[in-house]
Amino acid sequence: MNNNVVTRLSSSGISKAVGNYTHITKIKPNSTFYTFSGQIGADLGGNIPEEFNQQVKNTFINISNLLKSVDLEPDNVIKVNIWSREEIDWEYFDKIYGDFFGEIPPSMTIAYVNALGLEAIKIEIEIWAAR
């Protein structure tokens, strides 16, 4: 972690994480809290590709650009919510996710859903951050 506001903690007394996430994230008092609208896999021109993994890649590009727009980094992210209409290719997803968040990722929730805002959207990812 590169900041002194967000701490990702190990936990005891519960099962080991079944994915790349931290069970507990602590935020120091008097921090600024950010919530972001869910991001989708549209490219910078607004085009939504058909291919699921390209949507995943574009979504993380969009998240990166959002964070940069308010001078935040992936280390500032405290929570990730993921909604997917298709089975996630975990080998691909974990590579993108790991490259983005590093060795100690933030807290995360994943849900498979029947629909998102537009028919073309296959995955949507929402983040919360603190500084």
TrEMBL record:
It holds the Pfam family Ribonuc_L-PSP. It comes from the Bacteria. InterPro entries: RutC-like_sf, YjgF/YER057c/UK114. PANTHER family: BLR7761 PROTEIN (PTHR43857), YJGH FAMILY PROTEIN (PTHR43857:SF1). This is Enamine deaminase RidA, house cleaning of reactive enamine intermediates, YjgF/YER057c/UK114 family. It comes from Maledivibacter halophilus.
